[in-house]
Amino acid sequence: VSSLCLNKIGEAYSLNAGARWYDDTISQGNTDVVLHKLPFVRFNSLKQKILKTPFYWKLSSEYTYFYKADGPKGHRADIYPRFFLPKRFGNYVAIEPSVGLRETLWHVSPEQNTPEKDTFNRELFDIRVELFSKLFKTFQLKESGNGIRHTVKPQIVYEYIPDRNQDEYPSYD
């Protein structure tokens, strides 16, 4: 694997860009079917409050160009915002319902598909509910006066993603 990665990390976001080339040293065939990512760009944000409302949001997004010498080539862009409404009950229990909205776009090179369709898109949503608590204890170190904090986070998570047939979409991963 040969890779180049560049990143910029801020207080509430990260931007990663790079390229990844895989050399197939095992295959003895005449075709090169190894999938390369030339380039990829990812932008993600941390969970942030939406103005003065009780709602929060975060974003995951990615663009990748997939390349094979012999085989499918194409672009994929994925944008995935998520919205949260966290609620605490005292100091012991919290619940965090959220909904995610995902849009994925593909553009496949014309020689790799049927002439009537080279662009695809998919919209999906998902619902997630987390019920959790955090239990912790700090153990003091005698020599330094510092402590070690141990945390246990028991949680119950329910996630719903609708079952959709996705056979028509390009499969690069």
In short:
This protein is mainly beta and about 170 residues long. It has strands at about 1-10, 15-20, 35-45, 50, 55-65, 75-85, 85-90, 95-110, 120-130, 135-140, 145-150, 155-160. The protein contains no helices and 12 strands.
- H and E order: EEEEEEEEEEEE
Instruction: Give the rounded overall mean pLDDT.
Output: 89
Measured between the Cα atoms of the first and last residue, the distance is 16 Å
Helix/strand-derived class?
mainly beta
Provide the helix percentage. under 10%
Q: Could you say which overall geometry the principal axes of the C-alpha atoms support?
A: extended
Poorly predicted parts? none
Helical segment count? 0
Which features characterize this protein?
10-stranded antiparallel beta sheet; mainly beta; two-stranded antiparallel ribbon; extended; 60% strand; 173 residues
What does this structure look like?
By secondary structure, this protein is mostly beta strands. Helix content is 0%, strand content 60%. The protein has no helices and twelve strands. It has strands at 2-9, 13-21, 36-45, 48-49, 56-67, 74-84, 87-89, 93-108, 119-132, 135-140, 147-152, 155-160. The strands form two sheets. Strands 1, 2, 3, 4, 5, 6, 7, 8, 9 and 12 form a ten-stranded antiparallel β-sheet that branches. Strands 10-11 form a two-stranded antiparallel sheet. A hairpin with a 6-residue loop joins strand 5 (56-67) and strand 6 (74-84). The chain is extended.
Secondary-structure topology with pairs:
Layout: E1 2-9, E2 13-21, E3 36-45, E4 48-49, E5 56-67, E6 74-84, E7 87-89, E8 93-108, E9 119-132, E10 135-140, E11 147-152, E12 155-160
Antiparallel strand pairs: 1-2, 2-3, 3-5, 4-5, 5-6, 6-8, 7-8, 8-9, 9-12, 10-11
